[in-house]
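Handover notes (outgoing to incoming on-call)

Open items:
1. alpha-glucosidase: sequence verified, structure written out, both below. Nothing else pending on this one.
2. Nothing else urgent.
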Amino acid sequence: MFWLTLVTCFLFVSWGTAVDVNWYKNIIVYQIYPRSFKDGNGDGIGDLNGITSKLEHVADIGAKALWLSPIYKSPQVDFGYDISNFTDVDPNYGTLADFDRLIAKARRLKLKVIMDFVPNHSSNQHPWFQKSIRKVKPYDQYYVWRDAKIVNGKRQPPNNWLSNFGGSAWQWNDVRKQYYLHQFATAQPDLNYRNTALNQEMKNVLTFWMNRGVDGFRIAAINFMFEDAKFRDERRSNKTGIPKDDYDSLVHIYTKDQNETYVTLKSWRKLMDEYSNRTKSDPKLILTEAYTTHDLTIKYYNAGSNVPFNFMFINQLNNESSAMDFKRLIDKWVRTVPKGSVPNWVVGNHDNHRVATRFGRGRADDVILMSMIMPGISVIYNGDEIGMVDRKFTYAETVDPAGCSAGRNRYHLKSRDPARTPYQWNNSTSAGFSTKAKTWLPVHSDYKTLNLEAQRDIYITQYEKFKKSMMVKKRAVVAHGSLNITLCDSRILCVMRAYGRDRIFVLFGFIDVPITIDAETVLPFPSDLVVHTVIGDSELRPGTFVLSGSITIPASGAIMFATPNLLSSNDENL
Ligand code: BGC
Ligand code: CA
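alpha-glucosidase C-alpha coordinates:
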Protein backbone atom coordinates (compact mmCIF):
# COMPACT_ATOMS: atom_id res chain seq x y z
CA MET A 1 0.00 0.00 0.00
CA PHE A 2 1.06 3.56 -0.60
CA TRP A 3 2.40 4.33 2.86
CA LEU A 4 4.63 1.30 2.73
CA THR A 5 6.45 3.21 0.06
CA LEU A 6 7.08 6.12 2.37
CA VAL A 7 10.42 4.79 3.48
CA THR A 8 12.40 7.43 5.27
CA CYS A 9 14.81 8.90 2.86
CA PHE A 10 17.51 11.32 3.84
CA LEU A 11 19.60 12.85 1.15
CA PHE A 12 22.97 13.98 2.40
CA VAL A 13 24.48 17.06 0.92
CA SER A 14 28.15 17.81 0.83
CA TRP A 15 28.62 19.53 4.19
CA GLY A 16 26.63 16.95 6.06
CA THR A 17 23.23 18.55 6.74
CA ALA A 18 20.47 16.18 5.79
CA VAL A 19 17.62 17.14 3.52
CA ASP A 20 14.54 15.28 4.66
CA VAL A 21 12.24 14.93 1.68
CA ASN A 22 9.58 13.21 3.75
CA TRP A 23 9.50 15.57 6.71
CA TYR A 24 5.82 16.44 6.34
CA LYS A 25 4.39 13.04 5.55
CA ASN A 26 3.15 12.01 8.95
CA ILE A 27 2.81 15.05 11.16
CA ILE A 28 0.51 17.37 13.05
CA VAL A 29 0.11 20.85 11.58
CA TYR A 30 -1.10 23.30 14.22
CA GLN A 31 -3.05 26.33 13.00
CA ILE A 32 -2.48 29.52 14.94
CA TYR A 33 -4.98 32.34 14.51
CA PRO A 34 -2.64 35.18 15.49
CA ARG A 35 -5.25 37.69 16.70
CA SER A 36 -6.50 35.19 19.26
CA PHE A 37 -3.51 33.13 20.35
CA LYS A 38 -1.46 35.26 22.74
CA ASP A 39 -1.22 39.01 23.25
CA GLY A 40 2.36 39.99 24.01
CA ASN A 41 1.91 43.75 24.54
CA GLY A 42 -1.38 44.02 26.39
CA ASP A 43 -3.47 45.77 23.73
CA GLY A 44 -6.08 43.02 23.61
CA ILE A 45 -4.96 41.68 20.21
CA GLY A 46 -2.76 38.63 19.77
CA ASP A 47 0.65 39.24 18.19
CA LEU A 48 3.91 37.67 17.01
CA ASN A 49 5.79 38.13 20.28
CA GLY A 50 2.88 36.48 22.04
CA ILE A 51 3.08 33.52 19.67
CA THR A 52 6.85 33.29 20.09
CA SER A 53 6.42 33.18 23.86
CA LYS A 54 4.13 30.16 23.48
CA LEU A 55 5.96 28.08 20.89
CA GLU A 56 6.83 25.55 23.58
CA HIS A 57 3.13 24.71 23.69
CA VAL A 58 3.15 23.96 19.96
CA ALA A 59 6.10 21.63 20.48
CA ASP A 60 4.40 20.12 23.54
CA ILE A 61 1.35 19.00 21.62
CA GLY A 62 3.64 17.18 19.21
CA ALA A 63 3.13 19.40 16.19
CA LYS A 64 5.89 19.50 13.64
CA ALA A 65 4.66 22.61 11.86
CA LEU A 66 2.67 25.67 12.75
CA TRP A 67 0.57 27.51 10.22
CA LEU A 68 0.05 31.18 10.90
CA SER A 69 -3.13 32.77 9.62
CA PRO A 70 -2.19 36.11 7.96
CA ILE A 71 0.08 38.52 9.81
CA TYR A 72 0.61 40.82 6.83
CA LYS A 73 -0.10 44.53 6.82
CA SER A 74 -3.87 44.81 6.63
CA PRO A 75 -6.75 47.17 7.41
CA GLN A 76 -8.25 44.08 9.12
CA VAL A 77 -11.58 44.18 7.31
CA ASP A 78 -11.40 40.38 7.01
CA PHE A 79 -8.98 40.12 9.95
CA GLY A 80 -5.81 39.85 7.93
CA TYR A 81 -7.16 38.23 4.77
CA ASP A 82 -7.33 41.72 3.23
CA ILE A 83 -3.68 42.52 2.66
CA SER A 84 -2.30 45.98 1.90
CA ASN A 85 1.35 44.89 1.81
CA PHE A 86 2.24 41.26 1.09
CA THR A 87 5.82 41.68 2.31
CA ASP A 88 5.39 43.40 5.65
CA VAL A 89 3.95 42.59 9.07
CA ASP A 90 0.90 44.43 10.38
CA PRO A 91 1.77 46.75 13.30
CA ASN A 92 -1.00 45.03 15.30
CA TYR A 93 1.10 41.87 15.16
CA GLY A 94 4.61 43.34 15.36
CA THR A 95 7.49 43.85 12.96
CA LEU A 96 9.57 41.85 10.52
CA ALA A 97 12.23 41.65 13.25
CA ASP A 98 9.65 40.02 15.55
CA PHE A 99 8.87 37.60 12.75
CA ASP A 100 12.57 36.73 12.39
CA ARG A 101 12.72 36.02 16.12
CA LEU A 102 9.69 33.74 15.84
CA ILE A 103 11.38 31.81 13.03
CA ALA A 104 14.63 31.54 15.00
CA LYS A 105 12.89 30.12 18.07
CA ALA A 106 10.81 27.76 15.93
CA ARG A 107 14.07 26.45 14.45
CA ARG A 108 15.46 25.81 17.93
CA LEU A 109 12.32 23.85 18.79
CA LYS A 110 12.51 22.02 15.44
CA LEU A 111 9.20 23.47 14.32
CA LYS A 112 8.50 24.40 10.72
CA VAL A 113 6.68 27.64 10.01
CA ILE A 114 3.97 27.82 7.35
CA MET A 115 2.55 31.17 6.22
CA ASP A 116 -0.93 31.84 4.95
CA PHE A 117 -0.66 33.04 1.35
CA VAL A 118 -3.71 34.90 0.06
CA PRO A 119 -3.49 35.03 -3.73
CA ASN A 120 -7.09 35.71 -4.71
CA HIS A 121 -7.32 39.31 -3.59
CA SER A 122 -5.58 42.19 -1.89
CA SER A 123 -6.99 44.96 0.26
CA ASN A 124 -8.49 47.93 -1.54
CA GLN A 125 -5.89 49.93 0.42
CA HIS A 126 -3.03 48.11 -1.35
CA PRO A 127 -0.99 50.62 -3.42
CA TRP A 128 -1.49 48.33 -6.46
CA PHE A 129 -5.24 48.82 -6.23
CA GLN A 130 -4.95 52.53 -5.64
CA LYS A 131 -2.84 52.78 -8.80
CA SER A 132 -5.16 50.44 -10.66
CA ILE A 133 -8.02 52.83 -9.97
CA ARG A 134 -6.02 55.58 -11.66
CA LYS A 135 -4.99 53.25 -14.52
CA VAL A 136 -1.28 53.57 -13.72
CA LYS A 137 0.59 50.97 -15.75
CA PRO A 138 1.12 48.03 -15.22
CA TYR A 139 -1.23 48.09 -12.21
CA ASP A 140 -4.21 48.97 -14.40
CA GLN A 141 -4.39 45.25 -15.30
CA TYR A 142 -3.74 43.83 -11.81
CA TYR A 143 -7.43 43.56 -10.92
CA VAL A 144 -10.60 42.37 -12.64
CA TRP A 145 -12.30 45.49 -14.03
CA ARG A 146 -15.38 45.53 -16.25
CA ASP A 147 -17.61 48.15 -17.79
CA ALA A 148 -21.11 48.62 -16.45
CA LYS A 149 -24.05 47.06 -18.20
CA ILE A 150 -26.60 49.73 -19.05
CA VAL A 151 -30.17 48.52 -18.60
CA ASN A 152 -33.00 51.00 -19.35
CA GLY A 153 -30.45 53.76 -19.15
CA LYS A 154 -29.34 52.65 -15.68
CA ARG A 155 -25.92 51.40 -14.63
CA GLN A 156 -25.85 47.73 -13.61
CA PRO A 157 -23.04 45.32 -12.60
CA PRO A 158 -21.58 43.44 -15.61
CA ASN A 159 -23.19 40.13 -14.59
CA ASN A 160 -25.05 38.38 -11.76
CA TRP A 161 -22.05 37.08 -9.80
CA LEU A 162 -22.34 37.19 -6.01
CA SER A 163 -19.86 37.74 -3.23
CA ASN A 164 -19.23 35.02 -0.62
CA PHE A 165 -20.25 37.60 1.94
CA GLY A 166 -23.57 38.32 0.17
CA GLY A 167 -24.66 40.86 -2.44
CA SER A 168 -23.17 41.55 -5.85
CA ALA A 169 -19.53 40.58 -6.40
CA TRP A 170 -19.09 43.84 -8.32
CA GLN A 171 -18.38 47.27 -6.91
CA TRP A 172 -18.55 50.49 -8.92
CA ASN A 173 -15.54 52.79 -8.82
CA ASP A 174 -16.28 56.38 -9.62
CA VAL A 175 -12.72 57.34 -10.52
CA ARG A 176 -12.06 54.55 -13.01
CA LYS A 177 -15.72 54.47 -14.04
CA GLN A 178 -15.75 50.69 -14.03
CA TYR A 179 -16.80 47.89 -11.74
CA TYR A 180 -14.19 45.71 -9.98
CA LEU A 181 -14.74 42.11 -8.93
CA HIS A 182 -14.62 41.08 -5.28
CA GLN A 183 -15.49 37.48 -4.48
CA PHE A 184 -15.26 38.31 -0.78
CA ALA A 185 -15.68 41.70 0.99
CA THR A 186 -15.95 44.91 -1.03
CA ALA A 187 -12.58 45.84 0.50
CA GLN A 188 -11.01 42.71 -1.06
CA PRO A 189 -10.67 43.30 -4.84
CA ASP A 190 -9.86 40.11 -6.80
CA LEU A 191 -6.43 40.01 -8.43
CA ASN A 192 -6.18 39.30 -12.15
CA TYR A 193 -4.19 36.12 -12.81
CA ARG A 194 -4.56 36.54 -16.55
CA ASN A 195 -1.94 39.28 -16.22
CA THR A 196 1.72 38.21 -16.44
CA ALA A 197 3.16 41.04 -14.36
CA LEU A 198 0.77 40.26 -11.49
CA ASN A 199 1.77 36.60 -11.63
CA GLN A 200 5.40 37.61 -11.26
CA GLU A 201 4.61 39.94 -8.34
CA MET A 202 2.98 37.10 -6.44
CA LYS A 203 5.93 34.80 -7.10
CA ASN A 204 8.17 37.51 -5.67
CA VAL A 205 6.03 37.49 -2.54
CA LEU A 206 6.61 33.74 -2.11
CA THR A 207 10.35 34.18 -2.60
CA PHE A 208 10.45 37.07 -0.11
CA TRP A 209 9.06 34.82 2.65
CA MET A 210 11.15 31.81 1.68
CA ASN A 211 14.19 34.07 2.03
CA ARG A 212 13.02 34.81 5.56
CA GLY A 213 12.98 31.12 6.38
CA VAL A 214 9.39 30.09 5.77
CA ASP A 215 8.87 26.35 5.23
CA GLY A 216 5.69 26.42 3.19
CA PHE A 217 2.38 28.09 2.46
CA ARG A 218 -1.27 27.48 3.12
CA ILE A 219 -2.85 28.88 0.00
CA ALA A 220 -6.10 30.61 0.86
CA ALA A 221 -9.26 30.33 -1.22
CA ILE A 222 -7.21 29.00 -4.13
CA ASN A 223 -10.23 27.91 -6.16
CA PHE A 224 -11.43 31.51 -6.53
CA MET A 225 -8.35 32.68 -8.40
CA PHE A 226 -9.80 32.51 -11.91
CA GLU A 227 -13.19 33.35 -13.34
CA ASP A 228 -14.79 32.57 -16.65
CA ALA A 229 -13.06 34.62 -19.37
CA LYS A 230 -16.45 35.33 -20.95
CA PHE A 231 -17.99 36.57 -17.70
CA ARG A 232 -21.15 34.52 -18.16
CA ASP A 233 -24.01 34.72 -15.67
CA GLU A 234 -24.28 31.85 -13.20
CA ARG A 235 -27.54 29.94 -12.96
CA ARG A 236 -29.71 29.90 -9.85
CA SER A 237 -29.39 27.04 -7.39
CA ASN A 238 -32.38 25.17 -6.05
CA LYS A 239 -31.73 26.29 -2.45
CA THR A 240 -34.88 27.69 -0.94
CA GLY A 241 -35.52 29.98 2.00
CA ILE A 242 -32.47 32.15 1.44
CA PRO A 243 -32.27 35.78 0.27
CA LYS A 244 -31.92 36.35 -3.47
CA ASP A 245 -28.43 37.78 -3.06
CA ASP A 246 -27.14 35.06 -0.72
CA TYR A 247 -24.01 33.44 -2.15
CA ASP A 248 -25.66 30.02 -2.07
CA SER A 249 -28.45 31.15 -4.38
CA LEU A 250 -26.22 30.62 -7.46
CA VAL A 251 -24.36 27.58 -8.79
CA HIS A 252 -20.74 28.72 -9.02
CA ILE A 253 -19.55 27.18 -12.24
CA TYR A 254 -17.90 30.35 -13.60
CA THR A 255 -16.31 31.85 -10.50
CA LYS A 256 -14.76 28.79 -8.86
CA ASP A 257 -12.62 25.76 -9.66
CA GLN A 258 -11.46 26.97 -13.08
CA ASN A 259 -8.82 24.82 -14.69
CA GLU A 260 -6.21 27.62 -14.89
CA THR A 261 -5.96 27.49 -11.08
CA TYR A 262 -4.13 24.19 -11.28
CA VAL A 263 -1.73 25.55 -13.88
CA THR A 264 -0.82 28.51 -11.65
CA LEU A 265 -0.36 26.24 -8.67
CA LYS A 266 2.08 24.13 -10.69
CA SER A 267 4.14 27.26 -11.38
CA TRP A 268 4.33 27.93 -7.62
CA ARG A 269 5.31 24.32 -6.94
CA LYS A 270 8.12 24.72 -9.47
CA LEU A 271 9.27 27.98 -7.90
CA MET A 272 9.37 26.43 -4.43
CA ASP A 273 11.10 23.24 -5.60
CA GLU A 274 13.74 25.26 -7.40
CA TYR A 275 14.21 27.26 -4.23
CA SER A 276 14.67 24.27 -1.96
CA ASN A 277 16.95 22.55 -4.47
CA ARG A 278 19.06 25.65 -4.82
CA THR A 279 19.34 26.22 -1.08
CA LYS A 280 19.61 22.49 -0.33
CA SER A 281 16.78 22.68 2.16
CA ASP A 282 13.76 20.53 2.98
CA PRO A 283 10.97 20.70 0.41
CA LYS A 284 8.42 23.44 1.00
CA LEU A 285 5.00 22.36 2.11
CA ILE A 286 1.99 23.50 0.10
CA LEU A 287 -1.43 23.25 1.70
CA THR A 288 -4.41 24.31 -0.38
CA GLU A 289 -7.77 25.51 0.84
CA ALA A 290 -10.61 24.74 -1.58
CA TYR A 291 -14.11 23.85 -0.49
CA THR A 292 -15.01 21.83 -3.55
CA THR A 293 -15.82 18.33 -4.77
CA HIS A 294 -13.76 15.28 -3.86
CA ASP A 295 -12.33 14.93 -7.38
CA LEU A 296 -11.38 18.58 -7.72
CA THR A 297 -9.72 18.42 -4.29
CA ILE A 298 -7.69 15.34 -5.19
CA LYS A 299 -6.64 17.07 -8.42
CA TYR A 300 -4.61 19.57 -6.33
CA TYR A 301 -2.19 16.76 -5.45
CA ASN A 302 -1.26 16.43 -9.10
CA ALA A 303 -0.78 20.18 -9.38
CA GLY A 304 1.77 20.22 -6.55
CA SER A 305 -0.20 20.58 -3.34
CA ASN A 306 1.04 18.30 -0.56
CA VAL A 307 -2.06 18.91 1.50
CA PRO A 308 -5.24 19.63 -0.44
CA PHE A 309 -7.33 20.14 2.64
CA ASN A 310 -9.65 17.24 3.28
CA PHE A 311 -12.67 18.88 4.91
CA MET A 312 -14.75 15.72 5.44
CA PHE A 313 -14.83 16.17 9.22
CA ILE A 314 -16.09 19.72 8.67
CA ASN A 315 -18.62 19.54 5.89
CA GLN A 316 -19.53 15.91 5.37
CA LEU A 317 -19.62 14.39 8.83
CA ASN A 318 -21.32 15.60 12.00
CA ASN A 319 -22.70 14.32 15.29
CA GLU A 320 -25.46 12.48 13.45
CA SER A 321 -23.18 10.57 11.10
CA SER A 322 -23.04 6.81 11.48
CA ALA A 323 -20.06 4.48 11.77
CA MET A 324 -20.75 3.53 8.15
CA ASP A 325 -20.65 7.18 7.01
CA PHE A 326 -17.21 7.55 8.56
CA LYS A 327 -15.95 4.29 7.06
CA ARG A 328 -17.20 5.12 3.58
CA LEU A 329 -15.66 8.59 3.45
CA ILE A 330 -12.35 7.68 5.07
CA ASP A 331 -11.87 4.66 2.80
CA LYS A 332 -12.63 6.78 -0.24
CA TRP A 333 -10.06 9.40 0.69
CA VAL A 334 -7.32 6.94 1.44
CA ARG A 335 -8.08 5.03 -1.76
CA THR A 336 -7.96 8.08 -4.01
CA VAL A 337 -4.81 9.79 -2.75
CA PRO A 338 -2.24 9.50 -5.56
CA LYS A 339 0.69 7.16 -5.06
CA GLY A 340 3.54 8.83 -3.18
CA SER A 341 1.23 11.44 -1.62
CA VAL A 342 -0.36 11.26 1.80
CA PRO A 343 -3.89 11.82 3.08
CA ASN A 344 -4.71 14.68 5.43
CA TRP A 345 -7.39 15.19 8.05
CA VAL A 346 -8.58 18.69 8.91
CA VAL A 347 -10.24 18.68 12.32
CA GLY A 348 -11.16 22.37 12.49
CA ASN A 349 -10.23 25.90 11.47
CA HIS A 350 -11.10 29.56 12.00
CA ASP A 351 -13.86 29.53 9.36
CA ASN A 352 -16.07 26.86 10.90
CA HIS A 353 -17.68 25.97 14.19
CA ARG A 354 -15.29 24.37 16.62
CA VAL A 355 -14.99 20.59 16.48
CA ALA A 356 -16.35 20.25 20.04
CA THR A 357 -19.39 22.30 18.99
CA ARG A 358 -19.97 20.40 15.75
CA PHE A 359 -19.63 16.93 17.24
CA GLY A 360 -20.16 17.41 20.98
CA ARG A 361 -17.24 17.00 23.39
CA GLY A 362 -16.95 13.18 23.40
CA ARG A 363 -17.20 12.64 19.70
CA ALA A 364 -14.87 15.56 19.03
CA ASP A 365 -12.18 13.63 20.88
CA ASP A 366 -12.98 10.62 18.71
CA VAL A 367 -12.47 12.75 15.61
CA ILE A 368 -9.16 14.08 16.89
CA LEU A 369 -8.05 10.54 17.72
CA MET A 370 -9.11 9.38 14.26
CA SER A 371 -7.03 12.12 12.66
CA MET A 372 -4.03 10.93 14.68
CA ILE A 373 -4.22 7.23 13.89
CA MET A 374 -4.82 7.69 10.18
CA PRO A 375 -1.82 7.85 7.87
CA GLY A 376 -0.77 11.34 6.87
CA ILE A 377 -1.26 14.81 8.22
CA SER A 378 -3.54 15.91 11.01
CA VAL A 379 -4.46 19.61 10.92
CA ILE A 380 -5.45 20.98 14.34
CA TYR A 381 -6.91 24.43 15.01
CA ASN A 382 -5.59 26.18 18.11
CA GLY A 383 -7.80 25.54 21.13
CA ASP A 384 -9.26 22.28 19.85
CA GLU A 385 -6.59 20.39 21.79
CA ILE A 386 -8.16 21.63 25.04
CA GLY A 387 -11.75 21.22 23.87
CA MET A 388 -12.65 24.90 23.40
CA VAL A 389 -16.20 25.42 22.17
CA ASP A 390 -17.98 28.18 20.21
CA ARG A 391 -19.04 31.28 22.09
CA LYS A 392 -22.48 32.71 21.31
CA PHE A 393 -22.34 36.26 19.93
CA THR A 394 -25.03 38.89 19.79
CA TYR A 395 -25.40 40.82 16.55
CA ALA A 396 -23.99 43.91 18.28
CA GLU A 397 -20.86 41.96 19.25
CA THR A 398 -20.35 40.54 15.75
CA VAL A 399 -17.28 41.77 13.88
CA ASP A 400 -16.76 39.12 11.18
CA PRO A 401 -17.68 40.66 7.79
CA ALA A 402 -19.45 37.43 6.81
CA GLY A 403 -21.72 37.82 9.86
CA CYS A 404 -22.18 41.59 9.69
CA SER A 405 -23.22 41.58 6.05
CA ALA A 406 -25.81 38.84 6.67
CA GLY A 407 -27.77 41.23 8.90
CA ARG A 408 -29.44 40.91 12.30
CA ASN A 409 -31.66 37.95 11.41
CA ARG A 410 -29.10 35.79 9.69
CA TYR A 411 -25.71 36.78 11.16
CA HIS A 412 -25.61 33.66 13.33
CA LEU A 413 -25.73 31.47 10.21
CA LYS A 414 -22.66 33.13 8.69
CA SER A 415 -20.51 34.64 11.41
CA ARG A 416 -17.20 32.96 12.16
CA ASP A 417 -16.59 34.91 15.37
CA PRO A 418 -17.84 32.05 17.62
CA ALA A 419 -14.80 29.89 16.75
CA ARG A 420 -12.27 32.74 16.96
CA THR A 421 -12.35 33.72 20.64
CA PRO A 422 -9.04 34.10 22.51
CA TYR A 423 -7.09 31.00 23.50
CA GLN A 424 -7.76 29.91 27.07
CA TRP A 425 -4.37 29.56 28.75
CA ASN A 426 -5.37 29.85 32.43
CA ASN A 427 -8.01 31.26 34.77
CA SER A 428 -6.52 34.74 35.18
CA THR A 429 -7.58 37.97 33.40
CA SER A 430 -8.78 37.29 29.86
CA ALA A 431 -7.90 33.61 30.28
CA GLY A 432 -4.21 34.51 30.28
CA PHE A 433 -4.51 35.57 26.64
CA SER A 434 -3.99 39.26 27.45
CA THR A 435 -3.35 41.42 30.48
CA LYS A 436 -6.13 43.66 29.19
CA ALA A 437 -9.66 42.87 30.36
CA LYS A 438 -11.25 43.93 27.07
CA THR A 439 -9.95 41.82 24.22
CA TRP A 440 -10.68 42.18 20.49
CA LEU A 441 -13.22 39.37 20.76
CA PRO A 442 -14.61 38.47 24.17
CA VAL A 443 -13.12 35.48 25.95
CA HIS A 444 -15.50 32.50 26.33
CA SER A 445 -17.06 32.57 29.80
CA ASP A 446 -16.13 28.91 30.44
CA TYR A 447 -12.41 29.78 30.68
CA LYS A 448 -12.27 29.55 34.49
CA THR A 449 -12.46 25.79 34.24
CA LEU A 450 -11.71 25.15 30.61
CA ASN A 451 -8.12 26.24 30.14
CA LEU A 452 -4.76 24.68 29.40
CA GLU A 453 -3.31 25.18 32.88
CA ALA A 454 -6.27 23.52 34.61
CA GLN A 455 -5.97 20.61 32.24
CA ARG A 456 -2.26 20.23 32.86
CA ASP A 457 -2.89 19.77 36.59
CA ILE A 458 -5.56 17.11 36.42
CA TYR A 459 -5.01 13.54 35.32
CA ILE A 460 -6.98 12.39 32.24
CA THR A 461 -8.18 15.65 30.91
CA GLN A 462 -9.00 16.67 27.45
CA TYR A 463 -5.45 17.79 26.93
CA GLU A 464 -3.96 14.58 28.36
CA LYS A 465 -6.10 12.58 25.99
CA PHE A 466 -5.05 14.76 23.13
CA LYS A 467 -1.39 14.31 23.99
CA LYS A 468 -1.71 10.55 24.29
CA SER A 469 -3.46 10.23 20.98
CA MET A 470 -0.97 12.53 19.34
CA MET A 471 1.95 10.40 20.53
CA VAL A 472 0.96 7.56 18.23
CA LYS A 473 1.13 9.89 15.24
CA LYS A 474 4.91 9.74 15.50
CA ARG A 475 5.01 5.95 15.34
CA ALA A 476 5.94 3.91 12.31
CA VAL A 477 2.73 1.92 12.61
CA VAL A 478 0.74 5.07 11.89
CA ALA A 479 3.08 6.32 9.17
CA HIS A 480 3.62 3.09 7.30
CA GLY A 481 1.24 0.48 8.67
CA SER A 482 -1.63 -1.17 6.87
CA LEU A 483 -5.07 0.30 7.47
CA ASN A 484 -8.21 -1.68 7.87
CA ILE A 485 -11.55 -0.12 8.75
CA THR A 486 -14.50 -2.35 9.55
CA LEU A 487 -17.82 -2.15 11.36
CA CYS A 488 -17.82 -4.47 14.38
CA ASP A 489 -21.54 -3.83 14.42
CA SER A 490 -23.52 -1.00 12.91
CA ARG A 491 -22.69 1.25 15.88
CA ILE A 492 -19.00 0.42 16.26
CA LEU A 493 -16.25 1.51 13.94
CA CYS A 494 -13.07 -0.57 14.28
CA VAL A 495 -9.82 0.81 12.95
CA MET A 496 -6.79 -1.41 12.78
CA ARG A 497 -3.23 -0.41 11.93
CA ALA A 498 -0.43 -2.97 11.73
CA TYR A 499 3.25 -2.70 10.97
CA GLY A 500 5.70 -5.48 11.78
CA ARG A 501 4.72 -6.55 15.28
CA ASP A 502 3.15 -3.20 16.15
CA ARG A 503 -0.61 -2.98 16.26
CA ILE A 504 -3.16 -0.31 17.00
CA PHE A 505 -6.78 -1.24 17.28
CA VAL A 506 -9.46 1.32 18.06
CA LEU A 507 -13.14 0.82 18.78
CA PHE A 508 -15.24 3.96 18.23
CA GLY A 509 -18.77 3.83 19.65
CA PHE A 510 -21.36 5.71 17.61
CA ILE A 511 -24.09 5.93 20.17
CA ASP A 512 -24.81 8.24 23.08
CA VAL A 513 -24.91 5.43 25.65
CA PRO A 514 -22.17 2.96 26.64
CA ILE A 515 -22.03 -0.23 24.53
CA THR A 516 -20.85 -3.50 26.04
CA ILE A 517 -19.34 -6.14 23.78
CA ASP A 518 -17.52 -9.41 24.13
CA ALA A 519 -13.75 -8.84 23.99
CA GLU A 520 -13.03 -12.10 22.21
CA THR A 521 -15.36 -11.37 19.36
CA VAL A 522 -13.84 -8.00 18.51
CA LEU A 523 -10.22 -7.97 19.55
CA PRO A 524 -8.07 -9.40 16.78
CA PHE A 525 -5.00 -10.01 18.90
CA PRO A 526 -6.28 -10.41 22.45
CA SER A 527 -3.02 -11.75 23.71
CA ASP A 528 -0.76 -8.84 22.92
CA LEU A 529 -2.89 -5.69 23.12
CA VAL A 530 -3.22 -3.37 26.09
CA VAL A 531 -5.47 -0.40 26.68
CA HIS A 532 -3.70 2.71 25.35
CA THR A 533 -6.21 5.60 25.45
CA VAL A 534 -9.83 5.83 26.49
CA ILE A 535 -12.18 8.56 25.31
CA GLY A 536 -15.04 8.97 27.77
CA ASP A 537 -15.70 7.64 31.27
CA SER A 538 -14.36 4.16 31.83
CA GLU A 539 -12.89 1.86 34.43
CA LEU A 540 -10.27 0.77 31.95
CA ARG A 541 -6.79 2.02 32.71
CA PRO A 542 -3.97 2.42 30.21
CA GLY A 543 -1.59 -0.52 30.21
CA THR A 544 -4.12 -3.19 31.21
CA PHE A 545 -4.66 -6.33 29.16
CA VAL A 546 -8.21 -7.18 28.20
CA LEU A 547 -8.02 -10.81 27.23
CA SER A 548 -11.57 -11.91 27.66
CA GLY A 549 -14.88 -10.90 29.16
CA SER A 550 -16.75 -7.81 28.19
CA ILE A 551 -15.52 -4.40 27.13
CA THR A 552 -17.64 -1.30 27.54
CA ILE A 553 -17.10 1.50 25.07
CA PRO A 554 -18.04 4.77 26.80
CA ALA A 555 -20.98 6.80 25.47
CA SER A 556 -19.84 8.62 22.29
CA GLY A 557 -16.36 7.46 23.18
CA ALA A 558 -13.59 5.16 22.07
CA ILE A 559 -11.03 2.69 23.34
CA MET A 560 -7.67 2.43 21.73
CA PHE A 561 -5.71 -0.77 22.23
CA ALA A 562 -2.10 -1.13 21.20
CA THR A 563 0.90 -3.36 21.54
CA PRO A 564 2.58 -2.44 24.86
CA ASN A 565 5.66 -0.92 23.21
CA LEU A 566 3.42 1.88 21.89
CA LEU A 567 2.50 3.05 25.39
CA SER A 568 5.70 5.00 25.90
CA SER A 569 6.13 8.39 24.34
CA ASN A 570 9.34 7.51 22.54
CA ASP A 571 9.54 9.29 19.24
CA GLU A 572 10.49 7.23 16.30
CA ASN A 573 12.57 8.24 13.42
CA LEU A 574 10.07 7.73 10.66
C1 BGC B 1 -9.91 32.35 4.87
C2 BGC B 1 -11.13 33.10 5.31
C3 BGC B 1 -11.28 34.36 4.51
C4 BGC B 1 -11.28 34.02 3.01
C5 BGC B 1 -11.33 35.25 2.16
C6 BGC B 1 -10.00 32.08 3.39
O1 BGC B 1 -8.84 31.44 2.98
O2 BGC B 1 -9.72 31.15 5.57
O3 BGC B 1 -11.06 33.39 6.70
O4 BGC B 1 -12.44 35.05 4.84
O5 BGC B 1 -10.12 33.29 2.68
O6 BGC B 1 -10.20 36.04 2.33
CA1 CA C 1 -1.04 42.80 20.98
